[in-house]
Amino acid sequence: MAHSQWRLSPDRYFDPDPAQRRIARELYEAVRPLPIISPHGHVDPSLFADENGTFGTPAELLIIPDHYVFRMLYSQGIALESLGVPAGAGERDHRKIWQLFAENFYLFRGTPTGVWLAYVFDQVFGIEEKLTGATAPSIYDQLEAKLNSPEFRPRALFERFNIEVLCTTDFATDSLRYHQAIWDSGWQGDIRPTFRPDDVVHLLRPDWRQNVDKLSDLTGIEVNSYSALIRALEGRRAFFKELGAVASDSDGTSLATGELTPQEAEWIFQRALRGEADTQDAARFFGHMLMESARMSIEDGLVMQVHFGSYRNHNQPLFDRLGPDMGADIPFRAEFTRNLRPLLNKYGNDPRLTFVVFTLDASTYTRELAPLAGHYPALKLGPPWWFHDSINGMTRYFNQVMETTGLYNTVGFTDDTRAFPTISARHDLWRRMSANWLAGLVVRAVVDEEDAREMVAELAYGLAKRAYKFE
Fold first, then answer.
1. String of DSSP letters for 397-426
2. pTM of the model
3. Which long-range contacts (CB under 8 A, 24 or more apart) does 205-210 make?
4. CA distance 421 to 432
5. Distance of CA 91 to the CA centre of its chain
6. What domains sit in the chain, N to C, each tagged with a CATH number?
7. Which DSSP category does 110 fall into?
8. Coil/strand/helix, residue 166
């Protein structure tokens, strides 16, 4: 029996207006071959530490590590354990996991995940048939054979995707042993760590005290005081830089920046060591540590990133049963104008600082973030992220941000990738939507085609390369 096949239009996502579509196609074709700059994501560096490393099974590649995938299935009442989530738990027969995924693949129609996976199946792996329950066994066999071949090993795909640089996200207490192994191997793939201190600056995390002890072990500094914490973090930042890091990153549910006195910071830190810190302590300390992060970034040159607006682990029973990162992170309303003022008043006028803000609250684009980024020399606006990394999310971003912020106060695209093969699909979508937006400006005579060609190259490549100081 014949099965339906993938038919990806070469003009997908472009406006149906013929004039705009023609220009969009030309702009896209001009940037389609450009290398990929990926300054923020969650790809596991261990994949690239060994030249013979593999992605594992199709389920390990596309389902188990990717909350974009399994959260949709969970929303339809499918138990995460039946998908092998979290990794190493629940169902261990990966063919059964794949079959369940395939039978429910229709759920992703019209979603960003559906768009990415269609590209992955068709363009990356050359799978001709659409994924359904009926085609699941055959497609699993095809993928398994390809994943076991040299052409589809992680390093080979990295080179095939024309990735110029890929940044991972690594906690302050990460040993970076896989980054060191990549460095020592002599392979030319440019994979860099990103310094994320959240494991030791969020005082109420369940494993905070253990992480502080680990930080002590890694640095040889006994972190028994606030001043010792600062010295240890500065030391870890220097180590990350030695392995190529260009940025730091933080996230949180409170963004009220403000400076504590050294005595206040010490009091709060000591209360945390005794297990006595409360939510107000944690919020004030994190706001202060964002100020410290800005200071450190001016001194050591790391780009400072903040990802804000996610209520982590919203589903408490699920968190209690399976732990964090189970697809239950939900956006909430954010405020930046007042909350960032202390940090921006102290450091926002210093051009040595690059401070990139990402948000899940798109309602702040026009009202707050676009005007802020359009004024402060240090502040740059991150691209549409997570729930907004989509056709409609990118369209809203371009329409709500660019007039006020200006193109050159943004930083291009960051893909936030977890399932590595989707990285090329995500950048392809961004380049197509960038071309489509600019084509709309051209047909309305807002910019001419010469300017549009320069702008689309900036969005695809130039902005990210300069903002993150890649050499």
1. HHHHHHHHH-GGGB-------SSTTHHHHH
2. 0.96
3. 208/272, 209/272, 209/273, 209/275
4. 18
5. 28
6. 18-53+153-467 (3.20.20.140), 54-149 (1.10.2020.10)
7. T
8. strand
